[in-house]
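Ligand: adenosine-5'-triphosphate. Inputs:
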Amino acid sequence: MIFRLGLDDTDSPEGMCTTYLASVLSDKLRSEGITVKELLLVRLNPNVKFKTRGNAAVCLICEGDLDCAFDTACIMVEKYADFGCGNTNPGVVAVAEDARPGAGFYLRALRDFCTIDGTVGMLDKIPADKVRYRGWKNKRGLIGASASVAAELGDCSDKCADDCTYELLVYRDPEDKGMRYVDRESLFEAEEKTYPHTWDSVDTVNNAVVCVPHTPDPVIYGIRGESPEWLQKADSYIISQMPERSSLFRTNQGTDAHLTDADAGDIEDGKSYRISGKVFSSPESGPGGHVSFMLEGMDGSPVRCMAYEPTKNFRNIIRALIPGDLVRVCGSFKGGSINLEKIEVTETALLTEEKPPVCVCGKRMTSAGSGKGYKCRKCSEKSMVPEITVTERNLSPGWYEVPPVARRHLSKPLIRGKFQVFKSNQIYR
Ligand code: ATP
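Predicted complex:
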């Protein structure tokens, strides 16, 4: 029988990682005669407050004995999950391929909020011989586990979610909480040799390493890219401490699957959007280096857009906006503002400057007082018409994005758009 095995919520800020558990579990299942065809790393709504880090769930696509796999997964969760953490509430779901929850459940977990009761209700509607599930503590992990078995990555009826990328995750022993060793130069070389087919291993503009976490989890580094082949190639350049293991995941990372198109008046807190509109206030710099402006949506509703300090050089783009620019903004609506992930400047407004006109006598006039036009101090000539000069803008129409150091897992790097079509699993150059 072909079935999917979903896991979520096994880690804590002190350690572990659900992807590591999936990697160990896949070896264990294989040793029990179960074929593990593929591992999926499924990112869900990045605004969920219970998340430990990046709101990831994992799914193993398997063939074999569903009951055996489910029992093994439960034993492994009990062995590895960080039950001591109050916010760790694991969930495991095993479901036959022909009885999986619909993609609608995945899309809700990706773009909206789900409840534990609603998830259990949905699982209970699946014929009992086709599903096994178990939640620990408050069982919240069942939400992500169910979404991961419902996920359609690169094969989704929703056009915006019909896409996938890959990540190669390289692990150390989970007991090892020391400094990681990854040769910095080798990461830059891997990026140079494989970009744009891999991305976000390093941030060349900010001269920073991006793919090595600083948290006490088992991940040494993760390479993201468009195909398993490109990930292997990038990995061949990387020099690091001896890994304990590695696993390849197909994923919705880097696809923008979390975004939906909306009018500014319809947006809700905790969801992520693409909104078209017009800049109607000059950008302002706030405390901590954040830059914000007000957008007037196509429906006339206002919404504040924010580029936070960690978005670094991206803020220069936002500072260069002026009222009247037509834009499309992408990001999550949180705490009353859109946290910008990328922006398309669709049309730039004219930046003009008004000066008093030059008189027929050759001298520049001066203001004759508020609303009274201009007057020449030399020959007393008058004019109501100012001289208008158009100043060149330091911003061109086009897409702009936050740098790799500030990119969210689900955000699609602009470079991908140049190589990719939305078609099941097909990515071409
Ligand atoms: P881990 O590596 O353990 O998966 P994480 O950062 O991905 O870490 P979790 O510890 O899994 O975060 O916590 C996220 C919790 O939120 C999980 O219990 C998951 O089931 C739940 N969850 C995920 N998406 C949603 C959603 N859209 N609505 C409600 N709960 C959600």
